[in-house]
Structure formats: C-alpha cells, structure tokens
C-alpha cells in the first residue's frame, strides 16, 4: 500500500499510527503522526520505505520502530519518549539516513546513527496548532537526501512537507519562543536568576527586565542587561523587599519574543538561616498567548511531586477538557489547550468552541491524598 499525506492523531496508550508488521513494501510518505501517550508512531517491517514523515509527541516504545529491513529517510522525530528504535531481535540492517531526531527522552535505542542524521530543534511554525511548516532559519531546510528533490526542484527538506510529494510554501521569520522555567535562587547577599536555554538555530541573546512591583511591563524603563548565558547574578541592595523578573529572547534578525513568566522574590519572607533559598513554589501561570486562537500554553510549577488534575471549563462551569490527570514529579510543566474542532473534543461531541471566556483550574494532591494546592485563572478565546 501507499500511505500518503495523512494526519494521524493518537490518543490511547497502546495505539500505533501506522503498523506494517503484516505487509511488505509499504510506502509511507508525508504523513503526520502525533501523540501524547501512545506506543509506536510508525512500525516498519520488510522492504518498507518511510520518507518525509513527521512524528511528534510521546511514544513509549518508539516514534519509529524498525525491524531492520526498511528504508527510512528525511523524517523528523521530535518531542517524544523514544525517537528511533531498532528491534532488539532483528537481524536486518536498516537504511536510516538524513533524518532529524531531537528533543526525545532517548533519541536512539539499539541503533547508532551515521553523520547524515542530525539532531536540532526543527523550528516548526506552531505544532500546537498542527502547523508543521518550517520557519525561515530551520536547520531542516535543504538538509534531506540530496538525491530527493522538493516540489520546487531544490534539495529536499527534512519533515512533513519535503520531497516530491510534499508542498511548496514560503518560509516565515518568527520571533524566538519566550524563555521558560525562570527561577530565582537567593543566597545572601546574592540573587541568581536561571532559565531554560532557547534552542532556535537563529537565537542570539536574552534581555533581562526587573522591577519592584508585580505585573510590570518589560520595556526600556525596566531593562537590566543583555545576556548570552542562561543565568544572571546580582547583589541584593539594601532597603529592597521585593524584586520581580522577566526575560525575552532575541534572534539574529532582532526579532524579540514576548516576555517570559514573571518570577517574584519576596526577601522579607526569607529567614537568614534559610539560605540558599530557591523560589520554587506551587504556581499556576497565566496562559500564553492570551487572548488565543486556536491554541494556547498553560504552564505550572510543582514544589513537590503529587497527583495533578488540570481542567478547562466554560463560563457556565461546564467541563470542556481534562488536560492533565496523573502523578507528576516536582518541576515546571507546560500543556497545550487547543480549541479547534476535532482535535480534543471528539469524544464529547463538541464541534468547536465559541469565542469567549474560559476557566482553567489546577488541583494538586500530595501524600495520603491530601490537597496541597488549587488555583484557577481565566483565558480568552477570540475567533
């Protein structure tokens, strides 16, 4: 069979996107297989060809599972559990070239890739909105097999729209993502701000902003310094009780991201014998972007591990979606909420959400099922 130009959205734990275990010579081209918690994206067997597919999201077994006799070229396997796995009992040798395997908990299992394969942030336009086109400076552009051409005659791109069965489109230059997971560590007389690094190929530097009032505007009046590192240290001045910090990311073209989440430091609440002290409490952040259409990110931080439930309601209090319902360790998390029809609401029969205000709520239970944190915020959908 030929399996081409499909979108396969997996929702169940044991599901498989494309299973070729009982067929021979299957051709899989330009498919999108997306999952939040499934088994395999693509399972290949004898003589299968897997060209210019995008496998995105968490797969417990593998984004692509190979039995060793397949031809796998120009694919992108990102943001999952295990990227590419060769079956441990297979005796065949797969052809695995010019693929991008990045951002997985483990990119490869039972396989050592050659130098034609890369591991970079693909710089998709917006995977949360199912837009897997490449941005202008993506390292996947013209990085595919030189013997395979795109529809415009250039060397093929890696991923969903590359190759002769793909699509020609104009690459757009977007700002970087806002810096994420901003934390503060206080060790008198110093404050150290830390955050996760940006991974865009055209990223250049960060801009740090600071004020003594909450919900401040990140502009020239609150600008502190441009930074290439992912930390900033300064001495606490006398007479200051509160500090608030935000960051933006800037690329080589001087495009600047929206500000990060705001981190607050209340120095009066910290006793001298508490140093060093990390600002790492339970926090539910405001969704980003807000207003949104059709998708937005909801971030939260857990001080300690616990059972987490994250719900979305309409303004009448009717349940729209359950975004998280599982035990999670302490740390920073983000989850995507998408209001588009057919992506998250098929089971309930909802065909799309109307413009308006929606509410998201988090509830965390710790040891012995004791509630330790709950909060809710509003977000606005505009179509």
Structure description:
- This protein is mostly beta strands.
- It contains no helices and 30 strands.
- The radius of gyration is 23 Å and the shape is globular.
- The two termini are 40 Å apart.
Concise overview:
The protein is an all-beta fold and 383 residues long. The chain is built from no helices and 30 strands.
Helix and strand sequence: EEEEEEEEEEEEEEEEEEEEEEEEEEEEEE
Major sheet = 8 strands, parallel
Specify the number of helices: 0
In the predicted model, the low-confidence regions spanning at least 5 consecutive residues are 341-349
On the 0-100 scale, what is the average pLDDT? 89
CA distance, first residue to last residue: 40 Å
Can you count the beta strands? 30
> What is the oligomer described by this structure?
single chain
Please state roughly what percent of the residues sit in beta strands, choosing from under 5%, 5-15%, 15-25%, 25-35%, 35-45% or over 45%: over 45%
Proportion of helical residues: under 10%
Report Rg.
23 Å
Structural class: mainly beta
